[in-house]
TrEMBL record:
Keywords: ATP-binding, Helicase, Hydrolase, Nucleotide-binding, RNA-binding. Coiled coil: none annotated. A motif (Q motif) lies at residues 77-105. GO terms for molecular function: ATP binding; hydrolase activity; RNA binding; RNA helicase activity. This is ATP-dependent RNA helicase. Residues 703-713 have a biased composition (Polar residues). The keyword Lipoprotein does not apply. Residues 668-679 have a biased composition (Acidic residues). Gene3D superfamilies: P-loop containing nucleotide triphosphate hydrolases. The lineage of its organism: Eukaryota, Metazoa, Chordata, Craniata, Vertebrata. SUPFAM superfamilies: P-loop containing nucleoside triphosphate hydrolases. Residues 507-526, 617-752 are annotated as: Disordered. Residues 263-415 form the Helicase C-terminal domain. The Q motif is unique to and characteristic of the DEAD box family of RNA helicases and controls ATP binding and hydrolysis.
Length: 763
């Protein structure tokens, strides 16, 4: 093909192209296609717009559910990689939760698929969202509404944790329409009861839940499922199972060993050297927090001190919680109510002033710092007697902890200052005493005796370190000590019996007698400990009310001192015969059938002159037949009742004749009746003597003396009815009675009263 041919061909093609673009037929076809597409879309949209919301939502739910089988937790990087509703996703994003943590990644998928999940992960690793997201999704999937009532129940060990979980739920679930309620003690039960049946998610503490289950009629819980409390074929998710340590990697942990009486100084010095930090200090009991919180406030360490413990009002607890959350630097003195689950942001230090009950408690406590990728430090204060046992436990639980020393040069001593405070304030002194006793009690009650041995404590020095002049008396320790001695005595006796037997056998065999065993080191230690306690106990007779109260309460209320078993045995199983208590004395008296509140006066000849309460002499003679019958066939109740009635009547008659003035004996029957009535009233009234019945009843609303018009009908009516029922004699009779001489019955006032009551009863 020549050049000319090529050119003509190209020209033809371009002409064809121009013609094609201008071709109305082709253009129409194109437009028609586009139009059809738009028409279908609009139609669909219109159709969808006509659907009720729930149906649209249903379709969205179905679309989500269809993805459940294909969840790939391993590759999930963002929350949106899971089939989670837009509402929840939006909530998560708004709360700045974008990527799931390890525990969330591994559990959310299973939970969405409807499996029971048992998950465990280190503190601060995000377990809260791991269960809250599936809760929201489950309710959403079931299109739960307010009228459906309770849909999810979250039981939390402490009120603070319940409150915190509630707050997270509110944040993450704010785009859903469910209702949620915080049901914890210390709040108004009535208001809760009114709302609880309309609440979809209830976050509660166990005590309050039981209260509503008992008292709130409208509250219907899935009780059977709760009771079973076992998981159906659960997925176990141990996120950090293979980890080298059970505490967060970003947490640095140390312990110091010091004597009990040095602990307050150590704490004060620590606080003084960490003024810009946020610190939580854990104590063994509320009373310690109560006392040391006040003491430290008085010491003015230079940083805010807060206290959180179970004896505070709920509102106060919330206030302190929020206050501490909002502070940049502060020291929170707390009991273990703050140990589990609470998410205080940016805590730098956790100091355990008292040894935790066990390694798990230790881990929960230190977990209040170094949360979610943050760093933190923890210091454990141990007594020499606690060191070995506790450190071994921690090692067992894979807790990396190092021993460090307290620098004695840096230690600041506060004992003198505390003494001065206590000298000024009686209340503070009492607090210090309670703190002292409570701490000892808490140590005494600890189960692990390898770690906690109250008899190893130098309690006198401890009392001084709290600012007290002397160690208060601690009864339960006295008793425990006695018990210990008795047990020791018993085993010694058993041992000596054994030795005697062995020596006897040896004699029989013609061998030389064995020598006495040497006292062991432990024996010596025990007697030293006993010395410490003994000295402290004898120093002061000022016994603490709290100890008395508790001890007495336990025994008195249930009257089961001998029957009680279990934990209380330590206190109650004292050797019989040695323990002399008011209760045992009272029981002895009862057994001997002594009558309390009785009084018998004898003449010099030994005859009964007067007896209280008055014994009614037998007035009606018992027939010989009756006596005989009773002797052989026991008491015939009906006959006895009849006889008593007769006897009462006879006695009343005799009493009446004895007391009636001679002049009155001849009066007519009618007059006699009236007289008798008056006598009854008269006996209660002793002439010139003060008549208490004339006084206004303090329990009744009083009428103003002057202006009766101001009294409302209701009140005046009530009063008049009260007056009608009054035991005081009517005015006319009182007037007549005033002219009479008081009857001298020869009895005391109390005896007179008793007599009147009898007469009234029989009449
Ligand atoms: N996906 C996430 N992204 C960012 N922060 C998160 C995420 N999940 C949880 N957190 C944050 O981590 C912190 C710890 O979470 P959470 O309280 O749920 O831990 P936990 O495992 O329940 O701790 P504990 O065992 O002490 O109860 C919280 O401050 C929380 O806001």
């Amino acid at each position: 093909m020549g050049k000319e041919d090529v050119r003509s061909t190209l020209e033809k093609v371009s002409v064809l192209k121009v013609r094609h673009a201008d071709d109305p037929l082709i253009n129409f076809e194109k437009w028609k296609k586009k139009y059809q597409k738009t028409k279908i879309r609009v139609k669909k949209e219109r159709a969808r717009a006509k659907k009720p919301d729930w149906q649209v939502e249903r379709e969205q739910i179905d679309a989500l559910v269809s993805r459940y089988d294909h969840i790939n937790a391993r590759d999930a990087v963002k929350f949106s990689d899971f089939p989670i509703s837009r509402k929840t996703l939006r909530g998560l994003m708004e709360a700045q939760y974008r990527q799931p943590t390890e525990i969330q990644r591994q559990t959310i998928g299973f939970a969405l698929q409807g499996k029971d999940v048992l998950g465990a992960a280190k503190t601060g690793s995000g377990k809260t969202l791991a269960f809250l997201v599936p809760v929201l999704e489950s309710l959403y999937r079931h299109q739960w509404t307010a009228v459906d009532g309770l849909g999810a129940l979250i039981i939390s060990p402490t009120r603070e944790l319940a409150y915190q979980t509630f707050e997270v739920l509110r944040k993450v679930g704010k785009n859903h329409e469910f209702s949620a309620g915080l049901v914890i003690g210390g709040k108004d039960l009535k208001t809760e009861a009114e709302r609880i049946h309309r609440t979809n998610v209830v976050i509660c503490t166990p005590g309050r839940l039981l209260q509503h289950m008992d008292q709130t009629a409208a509250f219907h819980v899935p009780v059977k499922d709760l009771a079973r409390l076992s998981l159906k074929d659960p997925e176990y998710v141990w996120v950090h199972e293979g980890a080298m340590f059970s505490t967060p990697a970003t947490l640095e942990q140390n312990f110091v060993v010091c004597e009990l009486h040095q602990k307050v100084d150590v704490l004060f010095s620590f606080v003084r050297s960490h003024l810009q930090k946020k610190v939580i200090v854990f104590f063994a009991c509320c009373k310690e927090v109560q006392y040391l919180f006040r003491a430290f406030c008085r010491l003015r360490p230079g940083t805010p001190i807060l206290a959180l413990h179970g004896k505070q009002q709920q509102m106060k607890r919330m206030e302190v919680y929020k206050d501490f959350v909002g502070k940049k630097s502060a020291v929170l003195f707390a009991t273990d109510i703050a140990a589990r689950g609470l998410d205080f942001p940016a805590v730098n230090w956790v100091l355990q002033f008292d040894c935790p009950e066990d390694a798990d408690t230790y881990i929960h406590r230190v977990g209040r710092t170094a949360r979610y990728k943050e760093g933190g430090e923890a210091l454990l204060v141990l007594l020499p007697s606690e060191e070995e046992g506790m450190v071994a436990q921690l090692k067992d639980k894979k807790v990396p902890i190092n021993k460090i020393q307290v620098n004695p040069d840096k230690l600041q001593h506060v004992q003198l200052k505390l003494e001065a405070f206590l000298a000024q304030e009686m209340e503070q002194k009492e607090r210090a005493q309670r703190c002292f006793v409570s701490y000892l009690r808490s140590v005494h009650l600890m189960k692990n005796k390898n770690v906690f041995d109250v008899f190893q404590l130098k309690i006198h020095e401890y009392a001084l370190s709290l600012g007290l002049a002397v160690a208060p008396r601690v009864r339960f320790l006295n008793k425990a000590q006695e018990q210990k001695k008795n047990q020791k005595g018993l085993s010694e006796r058993e041992q000596s019996e054994d030795t005697e037997l062995r020596q006897f056998k040896a004699k029989l065999r013609g061998e030389a007698p064995a020598t006495e065993p040497e006292p062991t080191e432990q024996d010596e230690e025990e007697s030293t400990a006993a010395l410490f306690l003994g000295a402290a106990c004898n120093d002061d007779d000022d016994d603490l009310r709290e100890v008395d109260l508790l001890t007495v309460k336990r025994r008195d209320v249930f009257s089961l001192a001998e029957d009680l078993g279990g934990e209380d045995d330590e206190f109650l199983d004292m050797p019989k015969g040695k323990k002399v208590t008011t209760l045992s004395e009272a029981k002895k008296i009862l057994k001997r059938k002594f009558q309390v509140n009785t009084k018998i006066t004898f003449s010099e000849e030994g005859e009964t002159v007067q007896q209280w309460p008055i014994v009614q002499r037998s007035a009606a003679q018992q027939s010989a037949n009756e006596e005989l019958e009773e002797e052989f066939s026991g008491i015939n109740v009906d006959k006895a009742r009849e006889r008593l009635k007769r006897e009462d009547q006879e006695f009343d008659k005799q009493e009446y004749n004895r007391e009636r003035p001679a002049s009155a004996q001849d009066k007519s029957d009618d007059e006699e009746e009236e007289e008798e009535e008056e006598t009854v009233a008269y006996l209660d009234y002793s002439g010139d003597e003060f008549d208490p019945s004339t006084l206004p009843d303090p329990d009744k609303p009083q009428k103003p003396n002057t202006d009766t018009s101001s009294i409302t009908l209701e009140v005046s009516g009530g009063e008049s009815s009260c007056e009608d029922n009054d035991m005081s004699p009517p005015a006319s009779k009182r007037k007549r009675a005033a002219h009479r001489q008081p009857l001298d019955t020869g009895l005391s006032l109390a005896e007179d009263e008793e007599l009147v009551l009898r007469l009234l009863g029989s009449s």
